[in-house]
Amino acid sequence: MTSRKEALVNYIHLEESCTISFPRGRGKPQEAQRKTYTVEEAVETIGFGRFHILLLCIMGSTNVAEAMEIMLLAVISPVIRCEWLLEEWQVAMVTTMVFLGFMAFSGVWGFFADRYGRWKILLISTIWSSYYSGLTSFAHTYGWFVFLRSMVGSGVSGHSQGFILMSEFIPSKYRGRILPLGQIFWLTGSTIEVLLAYLIVPTLGWRWLVRISTIPSIVLLVVFKCIPESARYNVSVGDTQNAKETLKYIAKMNRSHLPQGSLIETQTARRGSIFDLVDSEYRRTTLQCWFIWLGTAFAYYGIVLTSSELLENNPVCGVTEGSHEYNSLETCHCKMFKTADYQTMVISTLGEFMFIPFSPFIIETLGRRRSLALMMGASGIFFLLLNFCSSRALLTTLLFILRALVSANFSIIYIYTAEVYPTIMRSLGLGSCSSMARIGAMVAPFIAQVLLTTRPIAALCSFSAMCIICSILAFTLPIETKGRAMQEIKPSPG
Questions:
Q1: CA 115, chain centre distance (Å)
Q2: pLDDT exceeds 60 at position 267
Q3: How many CB atoms lie within 10 A of CB 19?
Q4: Rg of the chain taking only CA atoms, in angstroms
Q5: Sign (positive/negative) of CA torsion 61, 188, 414, 363?
Q6: Using CA atoms, how far apart are residues 402 and 54, in angstroms rounded to an integer?
Q7: For residue 196, what pLDDT is reported?
Q8: Which of 118-127, 320-329, 472-481, 482-491 has the lowest mean pLDDT?
Q9: Which residues are within 8 A (CB) of 158 and not within 5 positions of it... i.e. 6 or more apart?
């Protein structure tokens, strides 16, 4: 009898246990899952709206400031060559030292941005570049000019955090359409700088050009407060409350709403490191991206500097018997730009606008890898075409098309790199790639401003060969990021 009672009690206990645990195992977890969401889901639910337009305008304006500082090197090269009677290698050294500072600090800014926030690093780097840019205008020796411009380059390298902020706030289906539009701001800055040089250098001198070129960076310091810190970053460091407040602010501006429930915290105790970039998960992607970035910068700054050299004295047409051979030392050092040269530089710079209307369609149709491979290959072909002696009109046309192609390369590789790495190492990944790009930018002046004057075919073929190699590497990248959600944390092995 006792055994029957015990069996009955056990049966009742088992039935109660099943009755209690059954709803908990089948019903409530599913309901709980429906009441939580990730930052990615929130960004997709909010959609594209007024906040993103404001974000594009402010963060895109960092490209205006950066482009003006970089283009400044091309437009004042003839002036400083004349003022300090510089040799060709000394002029090239100015650009090289700027990009040395850029290379040295790109990874540093990225490292700190993954730990302390994108917004803070963007603010600090903008203050840094503005300060040293203003000081450059007071440099009275070549040595001080080179040092101060290298410090400007180290600060400007932090401006890439503006692109990171944009990529982390924009929904995935809009990234391929919207991010390339940021190139408009770069082109605007380049064009403004050439026009300012045309108006200011002949009248007020290059020092006032440098001072006026600093104004956009100062304006940015005022409007940065309108943009919050990245919600993806906040969540990755455990600051879920601020992340949710940011998402609410964006939803309110866009007249949209957040998903129902609470925001999932995906904090990770360990932040991304350089070793994560070269582990088995990302090694091939990182190594190929590094070389592509190097080649992209080599080609882009190569064509920017080559343009000024081809306009000053086209070595491709073999000016060996003309008047240049008999010019005095002072005349050789003082080959200033004329009105036609500035006009051609503006036209060739405007060529970068040519790709923008087609970039969203090409990037979203072909994908990031194929688009980059196509543009890189075409860049290589047009560099070869510059080897033929041509009239100024044809030269301007070639430069116009080539500027469009090489700027497209930068636009696509920026998007790809921001999408391929997870949040905890995204700034570090982009920063390391940007550092590699500066190696190409450091070499470019010696090819475009030194080798071009003596062996133009070798110089132009060097740019062409680099583009072809990068085209092959782009086509064979192991990961396609088109339509891919941005990862929050690094995937676990296996």
A1: 20
A2: no
A3: 9
A4: 27
A5: positive
A6: 31
A7: 94
A8: 320-329
A9: 105, 109, 113, 121, 122, 124, 125, 126, 128, 129
Query: Per residue, what are the HEC states of 404-438?
Result: HHHHHHHHHHHHHHHHHCCHHHHHHHHHHHHHHHH
Are the C-beta atoms of residues 472 and 372 closer than 8 Å to each other?
A: no
Instruction: Check if the beta carbon of residue 359 is closer than 8 Å to that of residue 180.
Output: yes
CA distances from 240 to 133, 230, 254, 369, 373 (A): 38, 11, 21, 34, 40
pLDDT of residue 387: 87
Rounded mean pLDDT of 136-144? 93
Tokens linked to 179? 């991010």
Element (H, E) at 307: helix 283-312
As a 3-state breakdown, the chain gives helix, strand, coil percent values, each rounded to 5, of 80, 0, 20
pTM: 0.74
Q: Long-range contacts made by residues 240-243, C-beta under 8 angstroms, separation at least 24? A: 240/265, 243/39
Say if residue 213's pLDDT is above 60.
yes
Tokens of 166: 């944009």
Report the candidate in 280, 287, 298, 294 with the shortest Cα–Cα distance to residue 477. 287
Q: What is the pLDDT of residues 10-58, one digit of tens each?
A: 434 434 344 434 344 444 444 444 578 888 889 989 999 999 999 999 9
Can you tell me the distance from the alpha carbon of 319 to that of 312, in angstroms, rounded to the nearest whole number? 11
DSSP calls for 24-67: HHHTHHHHHHHTEE-HHHHHHHH-S-HHHHHHHHHHHHHHHHHH
pLDDT of 347: 73
Q: Across the strands, what pairs with 263?
A: 37
Longest dimension (CA), the chain: 125
What DSSP string runs through 424-484? HHHHHHHHHHHHHHHHHHHHHHIIIIIIHHH-HHHHHHHHHHHHHHHHHHHHT-S---TTP
Amino acid at 113: A
Predicted local distance difference test score (pLDDT) of residue 308: 67
Query: In 3-state terms, what secondary structure has residue 112?
Result: helix
Q: Does 319 or 380 have the greater pLDDT score?
A: 380
